[in-house]
Automatic annotation (TrEMBL):
It comes from Herbaspirillum robiniae. GO terms for molecular function: cardiolipin synthase activity. Keywords: Cell membrane, Membrane, Repeat, Transferase, Transmembrane, Transmembrane helix. This is Cardiolipin synthase. GO terms for biological process: cardiolipin biosynthetic process.
C-alpha cells in the first residue's frame, strides 16, 4: 500500500496543517510496493569474470586483472576482497569503475567547504540534486554561489524535491532562474504543475553534486543550516529538543574525483529527463575523465520506476557474504524481514554485527518503529548503540573492512520502494580503514543498548514502539 511520504527533516513551524491535508488526500492513492527476494548465490562468479571500467571505457581482462592484483597486494586478506568483488560484480546495474580518488567528509562544515571549492573551480557545468534546500544562511550562500557561477558562463542545473523543500518559498529559487540557472521541482505537490503523472508518494531523496563530469559528491547532507556545526565537539551538549537547530547534526558525505563521476552524471540526467525538465543544452556533460586515484567505485541509483532496488540487492548480497564484520550507521532504521534475517543470520555465523542508530530524531514515529525491532536483534547477538549529543542522519556501512557505502539510502521501506536514492560503493581496504575509524568515533559518542537493559524499559515505551511498528512499512 502506498501512502504519502513520511516527512523527514521538515518538521518546522507552520507545516502541520498543510501536511495533514496532504496525508488525508494521499490515502486515496492505492498501489503496491515490494522488495526483491535476494538469494545468497552471488559468489558463483569469480573475480576474473568481473567487468570493470576506466576513464577510457571498459577494461580488457588483462587490465582488470592488473588492477585487482594491485589492490590485493595492498590488502592483508585478499580472500575477503575477492569475495566482495565477486558479489559486487554479480549485482546488475552500473559498472565497477577504477581510477578514482575518494575523500571521506564528516559532517556539514567539511562537506560544504569541499563542495564550495569544487563549485568555484567549475569551468563548464554544475548539476545539483537535493531533497532539501532551505531558505536560510547556508541555502542563500549556495544560491549566491550558483548564481555567480552561472554569470561566469558555467551552466548550472538544480533539481530539488517538492516535499523536501515544502518550507522553502518558491520565491527563493527565482533569482537563480532569472540568472539563467535551470531549476526543476521533482514531482510537484501541486497537481496543476505536474509534467508527468502525479506521483505524490514518490520522492527524490538524493543528495548529489556533479561538477564538470569529473567530481561528484554523494551522501546524506542536504543544503541547510542544521549542518552548520560539527557533531564531535569535545564539550558535551545538554540534551535539547530534536527540532532545535542548536542540536548538531551528524552526517557523512564522500567526494569522488575520477571517471565514476560520469556514472553519477548519468543518474542525474536520467532523472532530469524523466521529470521532463528544461532542455539541458549542449554542454559536453560526458567529457573524457582522467584517472585521479586507484579506488574502485560503483555509482548506484534506485528509482520507484525500476523493477527492484539495486541498492537493496547490493546491501543484502554484501551482508549475506560477510565473514568478519558488519558495521552499519543509519538514521531511519526500519528494516524489512529479509534485511533483519540477513543481519541475524550473519550474527549466528559469528560475524560481528553492530548498529549505530539515533537516540533522538526529527521523526519520533520512525524512532519508535526502529526501536520495535531492538528485542529481536539483541536476542540474535547483534550489538546496538545509540548516538548521543547529536541528531544522527548518516547512512553508511562498512563490511569486512573492504566493502563500504555512503549515500542517501536509509534502511527502511520508503528508501527501498518509494524514493529516488543514490549511493557510492567503494571496494578498498584503505578507504575501509577510514570508514572503520569514523565508525569507532561514533561508537565512542554512543551508548550501548544491552538486552538486559532493554527488557526493563517502561510499558509506556513498549506501547509507543508497538503503535509505531504498525506503520513500519509506510514510513
Amino acid at each position: 500500500m502506498k501512502t504519502f511520504a513520511s516527512i523527514k527533516n521538515t518538521s518546522r513551524t507552520g507545516m502541520h496543517a498543510a501536511l495533514l491535508a496532504l496525508i488525508l488526500l494521499s490515502t486515496l492513492l492505492v498501489g503496491c510496493g515490494s522488495l526483491p527476494t535476494i538469494v545468497p548465490d552471488m559468489d558463483t562468479q569469480s573475480a576474473r569474470s568481473i567487468e570493470m571500467k576506466g576513464g577510457r571505457g571498459i577494461l580488457s581482462e588483462q587490465q582488470t586483472k592488473a588492477v585487482l592484483d594491485k589492490l590485493k597486494q595492498q590488502n592483508g586478506d585478499s580472500t575477503l576482497l575477492d569475495r566482495h568483488l565477486a558479489v559486487e560484480g554479480a549485482v546488475t546495474g552500473s559498472p565497477l569503475v577504477t581510477g578514482n580518488k575518494v575523500t571521506l567528509l564528516i559532517d556539514g562544515p567539511a562537506t560544504y567547504a569541499s563542495m564550495t571549492q569544487a563549485i568555484q573551480a567549475a569551468r563548464y557545468h554544475i548539476n545539483m540534486e537535493t531533497y532539501i534546500m532551505e531558505d536560510d544562511e547556508v541555502g542563500r550562500q549556495f544560491s549566491d554561489m550558483l548564481i555567480a557561477m552561472q554569470k561566469k558562463g558555467v551552466q548550472v542545473n538544480l533539481m530539488y524535491d517538492s516535499v523536501g523543500a515544502l518550507n522553502t518559498p518558491r520565491a527563493f529559487f527565482q533569482p537563480m532562474i532569472d540568472a539563467g540557472v535551470k531549476v526543476l521541482e521533482f514531482n510537484p505537490l501541486n497537481p496543476t504543475q505536474v509534467r508527468k503523472d502525479w506521483e505524490v508518494n514518490q520522492r527524490d531523496h538524493r543528495k548529489l553534486l556533479v561538477v564538470d563530469g569529473k567530481t561528484a559528491f554523494v551522501g546524506g547532507i542536504n543544503i541547510s543550516s542544521v549542518y552548520s556545526a560539527g557533531s564531535f565537539s569535545k564539550r558535551k551538549s545538554r540534551k535539547r529538543d530534536a527540532d532545535s537547530k542548536e542540536v548538531p547534526w551528524r552526517d557523512t558525505q564522500v567526494r569522488v574525483d575520477g571517471p565514476v563521476a560520469l556514472e553519477f552524471q548519468k543518474l542525474f540526467i536520467d532523472t532530469w529527463n524523466k521529470q521532463r525538465g528544461p532542455d539541458l543544452g549542449e554542454h559536453n556533460y560526458f567529457p573524457k575523465v582522467a584517472a585521479a586515484g586507484g579506488e574502485i567505485v560503483r555509482a548506484i541509483g534506485s528509482s520507484p520506476d525500476d523493477p527492484y532496488s539495486v541498492i537493496y540487492a547490493t546491501f543484502i548480497s554484501a551482508i549475506h557474504h560477510a565473514e568478519s564484520s558488519i558495521y552499519l550507521t543509519n538514521a531511519y532504521f526500519v528494516p524489512d524481514p529479509q534485511l533483519r534475517d540477513a543481519l541475524k543470520n550473519a550474527a549466528k555465523r559469528g560475524v560481528d554485527v553492530r548498529l549505530v542508530l539515533p537516540s533522538t530524531s526529527d521523526s519520533s514515529l520512525v524512532l519508535y518503529a526502529s526501536r520495535s525491532f531492538y528485542q529481536e536483534l539483541l536476542e540474535a547477538g547483534i550489538r546496538i548503540y545509540e548516538r548521543q549529543d547529536a541528531l544522527l542522519h548518516s547512512k553508511t556501512a562498512i563490511i569486512d573492512g573492504v566493502w563500504s557505502t555512503v549515500g542517501s539510502t536509509n534502511l527502511d521501506w520508503r528508501s527501498f520502494v518509494f524514493n529516488q536514492e543514490i549511493n557510492a560503493v567503494i571496494l578498498s581496504p584503505q578507504f575501509g580503514a577510514q570508514m572503520k575509524n569514523m565508525f569507532d568515533r561514533d561508537l565512542g559518542a554512543s551508548k550501548e543498548i544491552t538486552l538486559k537493559e532493554w527488557e526493563q524499559r517502561p510499558v509506556s515505551e513498549r506501547m509507543k514502539e508497538f503503535g509505531a511498528s504498525v506503520w513500519a512499512r509506510l514510513l
